[in-house]
Design brief:
This protein is mostly helical. It is about 55% helix and about 5% strand. The protein has 15 helices and 10 strands. It has helices spanning about 1-15, 40-45, 115-120, 130-145, 155-170, 175-185, 280-345, 350-380, 390-420, 425-455, 465-490, 500-515, 525, 530-555, 560-584, and strands at about 80, 85, 95-100, 110-115, 125-130, 220, 230, 235-240, 255-260, 275-280. The chain has a 3-stranded antiparallel β-sheet with strand order 4-3-5. Strand 6 (about 220) and strand 7 (about 230) form a beta hairpin.
């Protein structure tokens, strides 16, 4: 009954197709083919068939030609489950999936086979190989490795231990003792200089494997890994220190301690006042140096990325500002062109006073827009590209801005020339007088506001230099005031007296100082003398350049020559003051 159930199960599993018997696939042997296995022989065994096995007593040596090991009580013989030949344990370490007839079957169980049976067919799902030998070799090599090689954070742990010990020793040492010890380069030798797991009984150098000697080959502990090394396999380039710029007082904080390789990028070029050299082995030196260089590269890369981001932000802001000014210029120029053409064809008929005021206002507005656009274009030139691509883009934007300015400025001049041909000379002179007057009023307001803002820095760290700059601006403001008084007195029909202008100017300047300052600084920036002086000089020169552009764009060449010369002299005096302070 058991035999019948087994046969039925084998038939259902598809292991054979006949009831009378089944001959397995030919298996490679060293002398003959594996014998036929009948169904009855298979079902008489619980496991795989062994009827084709060669008797072990008939094989005194291993059948593998490359082995031929003689069998003994230690080296016992074993049969290959596939071909049945006799082999030693080393030659029978492969496994293949076999069915009950000892044929290859991906759905069968794993059985030990010889090398020839293992490689006789294409190795598919049922092929396996023993990797025990390789595993033992790797395990042995891994055990012999230094723990620091496979410990990712051993360097950070060692640096933390060194920092804690160094700061603790500093805080517990009197200042006078520290001063004396700093002259001898080293402090008292503390336990924090080597890890707890340091090997004290090592007889030979961990790196070169040479034995230590009392006189010629002394032993040292690496402060990072704790290995015992010789002089030639270690150095004292590892330094723990407190940067001179980070010292906050007599007591020291853990965050102030730094561990680096000296004279390597990212580390100090010379010893700080508070420092200590430590011993480090060659392997840890390379690891620390690479880590230090990588950290420095990361910092440089981060700074470069920040510079690129800042450049793109500035570039985008400048471009948006230029586009806004371009739209304003185009709109005002279009209105001015319509006004000029309407006066030429007689469609715009008003009294003479209204025409003069309308044209004067249009010319003043356009001149202001052109000056503002040119000032922003000059600022755009000061941007420093951080890569060839950004340089090319900035150059294209700058060329486009210059082209827009040249084309629209030429159109404006052409419209003015056409207007001069149509209108009487007296009207054009009246219009130009109004433009000159308004331009001088704007210059007077700018210089006075700038002088008042610079005077407000008298009580700061750069008060002396700010006072000299303010004095130059006050002198210039007095020259402009005298010129403006003469212009207002000379213009006939002008209802605006000097007293009214001075009252309105003071109200406007008070409003500008409250809402729109020319030099804006924070309380912290006021405490930085060098930064504050550079900011005052930079903004003063920018305002003076803007005034020069306004005078050049609005007034005639022969008008206000003294004012123009005074503005230029003030700028040169300020720059000369900066150069003098820099040389001192």
């Amino acid at each position: 009954m058991a035999s019948n159930r087994t046969s039925s199960g084998l038939v259902a599993a598809g292991l054979y197709t006949t009831v009378s018997g089944f001959v397995p696939n030919k298996a490679p042997t060293y002398s003959k083919m594996a014998p036929s296995i009948s169904m009855v022989e298979v079902t008489e065994h619980v496991g795989i068939s062994r009827s084709h096995w060669v008797p072990k007593a008939s094989r005194p040596v291993c059948k593998a030609r490359s082995c031929r090991l003689t069998f003994s009580l230690i080296n016992t013989p074993r049969n290959c489950y596939r071909c049945g030949e006799v082999f030693c344990r080393q030659c029978l370490k492969q496994s293949r999936r076999l069915n009950l007839f000892a044929n290859y079957d991906p759905q069968g169980k794993f059985y030990k086979v010889c090398k020839l049976c293992f490689d006789s067919e294409q190795q598919g799902t049922g092929a396996t190989r023993s990797m025990m030998k390789e595993f033992r070799q790797l395990r042995s090599a891994f055990r012999n490795l230094d723990p620091k090689i496979h410990s990712e954070n051993y360097l950070a742990i060692a640096e933390q231990r060194i920092k804690e010990g160094f700061i603790s020793e500093l805080n517990s040492t009197p200042s006078l003792v520290r001063l004396v010890q700093s002259l001898t380069i080293t402090l008292v030798k503390g336990a924090w200089k080597k890890p707890v797991r340091a090997n004290e009984n090592q007889a030979a150098c961990k790196i070169c494997k040479q034995k230590f000697e009392m006189l010629f080959k002394s032993r040292h502990h690496c402060s990072i890994c704790g290995d015992v090394v010789c002089d030639s396999c270690s150095n004292r380039d590892l330094i723990v220190y407190v940067a001179d710029s980070n010292r906050s007082g007599e007591s020291f904080r853990l965050s102030e301690a730094i561990v680096n390789i000296i004279k390597v990028s990212g580390g100090p070029a010379k010893e700080p006042e508070i420092h200590q050299y430590l011993r480090i082995c060659k392997s840890c030196y390379e690891v620390k140096k690479n880590s230090q260089l990588q950290r420095e590269r990361d910092i440089i890369l981060k700074v470069q990325q920040m510079e690129v981001t800042a450049f793109w932000d500035k570039l985008s802001s400048f471009h948006d500002t230029l586009l806004t000014n371009q739209r304003q210029i185009a709109s005002s120029l279009e209105k001015y062109e319509v006004l000029v053409k309407s006066l030429e064809d007689g469609s715009h008929r008003t009294d003479r006073g209204n025409n003069v005021q309308t044209l004067s206002k249009a010319q003043i507005d356009l001149s202001d827009l052109f000056v503002s656009y040119l000032t922003k274009t000059n600022k755009f030139k000061a941007l420093k590209p951080v890569s060839p691509n950004t340089q090319k883009l900035a150059s294209n934007i700058q060329m486009s801005a210059v082209k827009f300015y040249s084309e629209n400025r030429a159109l404006y001049k052409e419209l003015r020339t056409s207007l001069e041909e149509y209108l009487p000379h007296s009207i054009m002179e009246t219009i130009q007088s109004q433009v000159n007057k308004n331009a001088l009023i704007c210059v007077h307001l700018l210089v006075k506001q700038l002088a008042l803002e610079v005077i407000s820095f008298d009580n700061t760290a750069c008060g002396k230099q700010a006072g000299e700059i303010a004095q130059h601006l006050v002198d210039a403001e007095q020259v402009i005031t005298d010129e403006l008084q003469a212009v207002l007195h000379k213009l006939e029909g002008d209802d605006m007296s000097w007293e009214e202008h001075e009252r309105d100017a003071n109200l406007m300047i008070r409003e500008l100082l409250r809402e729109q300052r020319l030099i804006s600084v924070t309380p912290y920036q006021r405490s930085q003398p060098e930064f504050l002086l550079n900011l005052v000089v930079e903004r003063s020169c920018e305002v003076l350049d803007k005034i020069s552009l306004q005078l050049k764009a609005k007034v005639t060449q022969s008008s206000y020559t003294q004012v123009k010369d005074t503005i230029q002299q003030v700028k040169e005096s300020i720059l000369e003051l900066v150069c003098r302070n820099a040389s001192e």
